Amino acid sequence: MPLEAPLASATERAAELNTRYRNHSAVDVLRHALSDPQVGRAALVSSFGAESVVLLHLLSTLDRTVPVIFLDTEMLFAETKTYQKELAEHLGLDVRVAGPDRAKLMEHDPDALLHRRDPDACCAMRKSEPLEHALSGFDAWVTGRKRVQGGARANLEFFEADGKDRIKINPLAHFSLEDIQDYITNNRLPRHPLVARGFASVGCAPCTTKTKPGEDPRAGRWRGQDKTECGIHFENGKLVRTGVETIL
Ligand code: SF4
């Protein structure tokens, strides 16, 4: 829904929305968020990863006209790209593919090995920048992040400020790992094919490994590195940590 009048800052809007929807369910949060004037025009951003189907299905039951942004880093598993196409068709979603700037790839990552030399720079170029570009024109975006994922997500609220003007909506903030699995099973939804092969979380192919039973689901992402998120971007040609992670 377009914004009707200039609104307060994203921080103030998020605080008010959290107060209003504090005790709502995931589906009610998403339903109201998609029509609340305090939220504005929203897109959903999805990696079409291991658990993405839950949020995508939820959206498909509420409003299939909401754009779904899929970030193709050009380093994804072939299985993810196939799953993305099949799932989008299955759920009838309006998917828009975003990707890195080709000239920048040629300049900074001609051998496609930047992820080994400088994974933060690689994430900035292949994820953060294209995502920011794809979100221009939107007042809010929907993510599938959950408190149970820990780290920076442990205190996640349904709504949070993303910079000065944009809001992030996290309808699944209070979902447990069991809730996710139950939702997929009860709605007979197709799972990412790599889940059955031991990948509890699926990102770019060079930076994702299988997880062992009992391990944190995100333990396979950037294994052996301090890195856990992609909250990095370029400012005046320099890498800057945003302190706000992307979801991918
Ligand atoms: Fe590059 Fe790895 Fe980040 Fe993907 S996850 S953008 S390959 S560093």
Can you tell me about this structure?
The chain has 248 residues and is an alpha/beta fold. The protein has one domain (10-240): HUPs (Rossmann fold, 3-Layer(aba) Sandwich). It has eight helices and eight strands, in the order H-H-E-H-E-H-E-H-H-H-E-E-E-H-E-E. The protein has a six-stranded mixed β-sheet. Strands 7-8 form a two-stranded antiparallel ribbon. Strand 5 and strand 6 form a beta hairpin. The two termini are 25 Å apart. The model is unreliable at 232-246 (pLDDT under 50). The structure holds iron/sulfur cluster. The site of iron/sulfur cluster has 13 residues, from helix 7.
Return the average pLDDT rounded to an integer: 87
Q: Can you write the helix and strand succession as a string?
A: HHEHEHEHHHEEEHEE
Spans where pLDDT lies below 50 across 5 or more residues:
232-246
Helix percent reads 25-40%
Number of domains: 1
In the CATH scheme, what's the topology name? Rossmann fold
- N-to-C CA distance: 25 Å
Please tell me how large the radius of gyration is. 17 Å
What's the CATH superfamily, by name?
HUPs
- Counting helices, strands and paired strands, the structural category is alpha/beta
How many distinct beta strands? 8
What best-fitting shape do the alpha-carbon axes yield?
globular
Number of helical stretches of at least 4 residues: 8
Strand order of the largest sheet: 3-2-1-4-6-5
Highest-level CATH class? Alpha Beta
CATH architecture: 3-Layer(aba) Sandwich
Strand content: 5-15%
- Spell out which ligands are present: iron/sulfur cluster
**Largest β-sheet summary:** 6 strands, mixed
